């Protein structure tokens, strides 16, 4: 977020709010790419958390049954 704020501040200072069309398109593309990356990373995090939960539950059950025998 700091990166985007810094870029936006710099662009507003340099162009005084009137970006060239090409620059606006590039910024739009960059924002879309960042959104896709953020979405993918969130999905990966969720999958890791699910795997950790399954592993910890499975490990705990396996440990209990091994000690009961």
Could you describe the 3D structure shown?
By secondary structure, this protein is mostly helical. The protein has a domain of 32 residues. Helix content is 90%, strand content 0%. It contains two helices and no strands. 0% of the residues are buried. The C terminus is likely disordered.
Which structural traits does this protein have?
69 residues, mainly alpha, 2 helices, 0% strand
Largest sheet: none
Rounded mean pLDDT is: 81
Q: Quickly give the structural class.
A: mainly alpha
Low-confidence stretches: 65-69
The helicity comes to over 70%
What best-fitting shape do the alpha-carbon axes yield?
elongated
| Termini separation | 54 Å
Question: What percent of residues are in strands?
Answer: under 5%
Number of helices: 2
Radius of gyration: 23 Å
- The helix/strand series, from N terminus to C terminus, equals HH
How many strands?
A: 0
Helices and strands in order, then pairings?
Blueprint: H1 2-15, H2 21-68
Summarize the structure.
With 69 residues, this protein is mainly α. Helix content is 90%, strand content 0%. The protein contains two helices and no strands.
């Amino acid at each position: 977020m700091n990166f985007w704020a810094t870029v936006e501040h710099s662009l507003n200072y340099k162009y005084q709010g009137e970006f060239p069309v090409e620059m606006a398109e590039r910024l739009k593309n960059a924002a879309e790419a960042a959104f896709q990356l953020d979405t993918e990373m969130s999905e990966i995090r969720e999958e890791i958390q699910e795997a950790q939960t399954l592993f910890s539950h499975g490990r705990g059950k396996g440990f209990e049954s091994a000690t009961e025998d």
